[in-house]
């Protein structure tokens, strides 16, 4: 940052007053970047430029030529585990610490806004950018995303919540329309964003490239103004994803304040011309410019806040240790038959797989970090077990070159050791920003090697390195599987920590691992065609889909094993206006300390609307010593029980008897209870289009209508056209306005309308 930014000369006045003193040309210039990563400053007004740079799991500040896809070099920074691993921690306290560390590094490098976190829903496991997203569930995404933003902004560096909204694939991402019905849009795809905005107030929200229901998000006033600002109370600035602007003159009044990167003055010229010819009200330009100045004011205050100077620094070793902790906490132990893990240091180990020596630790694209250090698992395993107990064979290559000659030595080595630790995973060319995956398979040569290694030594532990889930056809053939995800720069050491028990695994799946791609919810609606992708699965994303269909999965949402065991007892649930208070006693019933992720799911079987059997609404990450018991209290917010009612276009908490299930995954429910929730009765005014069933349920119209129809129904039933009860079923959905005039119906349209008017007037 410049000295001007540090001193904040000229920025003491309210932003609106500063903008009032600017020319139209100056205001227009503020709403577009000055370069690839910097905003436009105005020297005469004392407005400095600030730096926005990529995250979300590290500070990617480019030194030389700037680009968006990670080609240009960047300064060294801690590469924390990407969101795929952070999401599996289910630990907002840990993520807030990671966010704080990111803020320290960003501030030290003079960065005003770090572009992250990403909270888009993992709609399909094929999305090439899933490694940057936290979960298939909006509550998990919202809680963890808010923690990251709170940590980051505690250091005086702004977050940028992205990618807003319904950006759930990379294919045709610049223009494809995500066509989503109102309920899933609100309940699944916007809910996580809403949680972060309301709980953490990120300084910026980044609009996405795509269209939403036919409208570019960069020029959608409903999305950027009505929903984001009016409904959720967002106070900050909306910035475009880099190159996401379609029509700048349309986008500015729609709520897009800042276009990035620089357009070399073209956008500013269009705005100036539009103000001049009257097609753009200057007040819209004032609003955008004011929000940019407010962002600059926050960045200036943040640069001063902790150090009083721009010479901020951070502890490289401490941040590496935090990255190691986070990677270990995000690893998910999927299977551990016969307690083959943790390994004993005296056990001879064949370490096989190129990823053990040359780790794949982050995804490709705009989040590519130049790490300060880089651990590998082979070295870390050797540190635990000693050189004499560890031998290595690559077994395959990761760059697409011919590795056939590497397999035989690896199989020979496997047969000579007590245990094999086999590192498998996806090469970087399989998943990246900019394109989606074609399948969920591991490379064929890796699967062939696995088969041969297991035949040579059945005591094989598989360790996975991947940013998106993969099919695991070998799950029944090996005794242990450790999902290490992309673990960041310290992921190699973290994997060794878990393998040897220095870290008791506590990661849980924030997304379902399916048996095969064809089982997944979006399978028939991904990636769309002719510029549209239909979200045809509706509300049933991720575990909601599998649980509603009682479908087989490889490993369910929330699953993850430990080296200890946990018992649940004494569940109690109370409801009040704030929501639910869930209390449960959790006991570590094993012989070593560990962490349990207690998951709270709710359902409403008698709901009047379509619902999943269960939805996670809250969770707690609980650390317990061996033998320790603790009562855990978990709050479920009242608003998280709500569904989006399309009849009244707002959130409604439906009254009724809610099931509350507490467990270790969506398929491992330990305790359940039922609680009455008062909720809200929604009454829709009656009309001639209302069904007979709707009028029958009305306290005023019901008795009159049913009495008047009694003779008609009796006469029809005497014809033997309908089986017993069949007439009632047919008539229930019949619009009352169409019934009048039928032979034998003893009411006129005028009488029905009078009855409707009477009922509506008395219940208004």
Automatic annotation (TrEMBL):
Highest taxon of source: Bacteria
Coiled-coil ranges from the UniProt annotation: none
Keyword field: Carbohydrate metabolism, Glycosidase, Hydrolase
Cell membrane among keywords: no
One Gene Ontology biological process: carbohydrate metabolic process
Every Fibronectin type III-like domain range: 596-666
PROSITE patterns per the UniProt record, alphabetical: GLYCOSYL_HYDROL_F3
SUPFAM superfamilies assigned: (Trans)glycosidases, Beta-D-glucan exohydrolase, C-terminal domain
GO molecular function: beta-glucosidase activity
InterPro entries: Cellulose_deg_GH3 (IPR050288), Fn3-like (IPR026891), GH (IPR017853), Glyco_hydro_3_AS (IPR019800), Glyco_hydro_3_C (IPR002772), Glyco_hydro_3_C_sf (IPR036881), Glyco_hydro_3_N (IPR001764), Glyco_hydro_3_N_sf (IPR036962)
Function of the molecule: Catalyzes the hydrolysis of a non-reducing terminal alpha-L-arabinopyranosidic linkage in ginsenoside Rb2 (alpha-L-arabinopyranosyl-(1->6)-alpha-D-glucopyranosyl) to release alpha-D-glucopyranosyl (Rd). It is not able to hydrolyze alpha-L-arabinofuranosyl-(1->6)-alpha-D-glucopyranosyl (Rc).
Family stated for the protein in its record: Belongs to the glycosyl hydrolase 3 family.
UniProt protein name: Exo-alpha-(1->6)-L-arabinopyranosidase
Originating organism: Agromyces hippuratus
């Amino acid at each position: 940052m410049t000295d001007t930014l540090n001193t904040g000369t000229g920025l003491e006045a309210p932003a609106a007053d500063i903008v009032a003193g600017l020319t139209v040309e100056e205001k227009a210039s503020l709403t577009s970047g000055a370069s690839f990563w910097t905003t436009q400053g105005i020297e005469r007004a004392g407005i400095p430029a600030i730096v926005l740079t990529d995250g979300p799991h590290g500070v990617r500040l480019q030194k030389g030529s700037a680009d968006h896809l990670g080609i240009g070099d960047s300064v060294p920074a801690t590469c924390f585990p990407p969101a795929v691993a952070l999401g599996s921690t289910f630990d907002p306290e840990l993520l807030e610490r990671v966010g704080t560390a990111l803020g320290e590094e960003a501030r030290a490098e003079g960065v005003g806004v770090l572009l992250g976190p990403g909270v888009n829903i993992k709609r399909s496991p094929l999305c090439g950018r899933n490694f940057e997203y936290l979960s298939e569930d909006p509550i998990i995404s919202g809680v963890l995303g808010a923690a990251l933003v709170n940590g980051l902004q505690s250091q005086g560096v702004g977050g940028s919540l992205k990618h807003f909204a319904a950006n759930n694939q990379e294919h045709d991402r610049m223009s494809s329309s995500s066509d989503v019905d109102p309920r899933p849009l609100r309940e699944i795809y916007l809910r996580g964003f809403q949680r972060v905005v309301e709980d953490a107030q990120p300084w910026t929200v980044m609009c996405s490239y795509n269209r939403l229901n036919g409208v570019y998000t960069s020029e959608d006033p409903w999305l950027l103004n009505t929903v984001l600002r009016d409904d959720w109370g967002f106070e900050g600035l909306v910035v475009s994803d880099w190159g996401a602007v379609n029509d700048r003159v349309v986008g500015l009044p729609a709520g897009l304040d800042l276009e990035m990167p620089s357009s070399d003055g073209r956008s500013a010229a269009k705005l100036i011309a539009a103000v001049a010819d009257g097609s753009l009200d200057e007040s819209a330009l004032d609003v955008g410019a004011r929000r940019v100045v407010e962002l600059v004011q926050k960045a200036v205050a943040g640069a001063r806040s902790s150090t009083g100077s721009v010479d901020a620094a951070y502890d490289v070793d401490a941040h590496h240790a935090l990255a190691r902790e986070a990677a270990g906490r995000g690893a998910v132990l999927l299977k551990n038959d016969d307690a083959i893990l943790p390994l004993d240091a005296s056990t001879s180990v064949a370490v096989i797989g190129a990823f053990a020596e040359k780790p794949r630790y982050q995804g490709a694209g705009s989040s590519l970090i130049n790490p300060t250090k880089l651990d590998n698992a082979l070295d870390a395993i050797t540190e635990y077990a000693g050189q004499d107990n560890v031998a290595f064979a690559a077994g395959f290559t990761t760059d697409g070159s011919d590795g056939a000659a590497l397999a035989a030595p690896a199989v020979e080595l496997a047969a000579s050791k007590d245990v094999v630790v086999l590192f498998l995973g996806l090469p970087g060319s399989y998943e990246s920003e900019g394109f989606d995956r074609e399948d969920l398979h591991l490379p064929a040569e890796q699967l062939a090697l696995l088969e041969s290694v297991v035949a040579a030594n059945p005591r094989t532990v598989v360790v996975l390195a991947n940013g998106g889930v993969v099919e695991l056809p070998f799950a029944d053939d090996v005794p242990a599987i450790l999902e290490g995800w992309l673990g960041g720069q310290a992921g190699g050491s973290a994997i060794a920590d878990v393998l040897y028990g220095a870290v008791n695994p506590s990661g849980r799946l924030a997304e379902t691992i399916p048996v095969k791609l064809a089982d997944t919810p979006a399978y028939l609606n991904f990636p769309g065609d002719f510029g549209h992708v239909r979200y045809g699965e509706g509300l049933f994303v991720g575990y909601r889909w599998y649980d509603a269909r009682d479908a087989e999965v490889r490993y369910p949402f929330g699953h993850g094993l430990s080296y200890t065991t946990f018992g649940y007892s004494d569940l109690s649930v109370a409801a009040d206006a704030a929501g639910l208070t869930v209390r449960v006693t959790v006991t570590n019933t094993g012989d070593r300390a560990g962490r349990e992720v207690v998951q709270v799911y709710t359902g409403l079987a008698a709901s009047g609307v379509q619902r999943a059997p269960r939805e996670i609404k809250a969770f707690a990450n609980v650390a317990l010593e061996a033998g320790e018991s603790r009562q855990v209290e978990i709050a479920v917010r009242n608003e998280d029980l709500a569904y989006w009612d399309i009849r009244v276009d707002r959130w409604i908490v439906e009254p009724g008897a809610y099931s509350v299930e507490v467990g270790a995954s969506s398929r491992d429910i330990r305790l359940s209870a039922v609680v009455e929730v008062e909720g809200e009765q929604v009454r829709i005014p009656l009309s001639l289009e209302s069904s007979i069933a709707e009028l029958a349920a009305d306290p005023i119209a019901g008795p009159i209508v049913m009495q008047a129809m009694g003779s008609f129904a009796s006469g029809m039933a005497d014809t033997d056209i309908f089986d017993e009860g069949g007439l009632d079923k047919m008539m229930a959905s019949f619009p009352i306005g169409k019934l009048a005039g039928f032979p034998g119906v003893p009411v006129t349209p005028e009488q029905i309308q009078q009855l409707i008017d009477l009922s509506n007037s008395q219940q208004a």
